[in-house]
Inverse folding.
């Protein structure tokens, strides 16, 4: 995973709006490495779809260059773009299947367009339907399929011409959680078994959690943060990222919730971040014991990102005041915990870029 298969340099896209021009993508530099699953996240209107449409030249850049598999596609004429697009599969939120064609017909469609002979086409379609688990639906029309099955057909069709890159634009947003998990599992197989680089656009944290190796966070056309999915979520440096994590996990009390907690718990409160190597709870237990302090969990949440624990716990500490002080000093320094004070002497919640972690 060292070579960039997609590179954007100084890329902007401006749409001439009715009143004023809209800068959908604003001076973006980005590398997506061969073999990775890369997430583009952000709220509606951030510019995610436009960014991805620039990668397969469905939109043309206003400025900057987009390089795909070594070719600068911003300089290519339409005819020369065709083979580049053939190397990029795409799946959509609304599946975009042809209603008048069977499942097999839909998957065969890009092969027909590419002029693949019938026998070869049929063999390839059978292979793809087997891969996505829809062999028994070959002769069925899309209207008879569930949402999850439709997206499987979409994936099989996107893979038909053996692309090196798959772009997935909100590919699970129209699906229920169980079906989403199913489709995400299939995308993981596409990446792991076929070695295809995947770029997913999503506003859903669950998708990122289950799938992405690295992510870019977009806000108002700009990439405000990029990196390893776990690192970015564990240590957000931009408010947009922190909002994204907080709105999905709800592990850190909001100021209002903290107020309520203080009414019920008048002891010293401390916010402990749980991350990384799984040693966190052991560290917490031993440090409490070491200082002769008891800790009661009064708020928090722990989940996984990329199979690593992630989240935070808010504890109320009970013990001799001097012991509590020493414990708080210790975990603040060694584990980046946040001292929230007491109901009588409250201390504010940490800003998003001040959160530490238990390592
Ligand atoms: N063809 C277009 N013409 C004019 N403005 C456009 C066009 N396409 C996108 N925009 C504008 O560009 C901005 C970014 O849109 P884009 O669809 O890329 O965002 P997004 O993050 O994908 O949002 P969503 O998740 O809602 O699709 C928005 O303000 C949008 O209105």
């Amino acid at each position: 995973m060292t070579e960039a298969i997609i590179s954007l340099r100084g890329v902007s896209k401006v749409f001439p709006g009715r009143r004023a021009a809209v800068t959908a993508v604003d001076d973006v530099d980005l590398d997506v490495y061969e073999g990775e699953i890369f997430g583009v996240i952000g709220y509606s209107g951030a510019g995610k779809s436009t960014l991805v449409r620039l990668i397969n030249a469905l939109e043309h850049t206003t400025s900057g260059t987009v390089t795909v598999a070594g070719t600068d596609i911003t300089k290519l004429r339409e005819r020369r773009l065709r083979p580049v697009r053939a190397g990029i599969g795409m799946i959509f939120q609304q599946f975009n299947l042809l209603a008048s064609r069977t499942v097999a017909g839909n998957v065969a469609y890009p092969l027909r367009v590419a002029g693949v002979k019938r026998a070869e086409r049929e063999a390839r379609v059978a292979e793809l339907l087997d891969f996505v688990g829809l062999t028994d639906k070959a002769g069925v029309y899309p209207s008879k399929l569930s949402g999850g099955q439709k997206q499987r057909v979409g994936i099989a069709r996107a893979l038909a011409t053996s692309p090196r890159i798959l772009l997935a634009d909100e590919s699970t947003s129209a699906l229920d959680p169980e079906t989403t998990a199913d489709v995400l599992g299939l995308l993981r197989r596409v990446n792991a078994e076929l070695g295809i680089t995947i770029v997913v656009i999503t506003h859903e944290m669950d998708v990122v959690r289950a799938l992405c190796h690295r992510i870019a966070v977009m806000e108002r056309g700009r990439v405000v943060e990029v990196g390893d999915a776990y690192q970015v979520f564990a240590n957000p440096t931009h408010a947009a990222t922190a909002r994204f994590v907080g709105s999905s996990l709800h592990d850190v009390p909001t100021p209002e919730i903290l107020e309520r907690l203080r009414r019920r718990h008048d002891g010293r409160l401390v916010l402990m971040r749980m991350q990384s190597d799984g040693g966190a709870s052991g560290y917490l237990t031993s440090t409490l014991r070491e200082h002769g302090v008891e800790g009661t969990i009064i708020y928090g949440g722990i989940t996984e990102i990329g199979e690593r624990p992630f989240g935070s716990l808010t504890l109320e500490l009970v013990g001799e005041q001097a012991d509590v002080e020493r414990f708080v000093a210790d975990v603040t320094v060694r584990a980046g915990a946040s001292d929230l004070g007491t109901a009588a002497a409250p201390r504010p919640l940490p800003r998003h870029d001040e959160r530490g972690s238990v390592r």
Summary: Residues 250-354 form a domain with the Alpha-Beta Plaits fold (CATH 3.30.70.260). The chain has two domains: 4-247, 250-354. The radius of gyration is 24 Å.
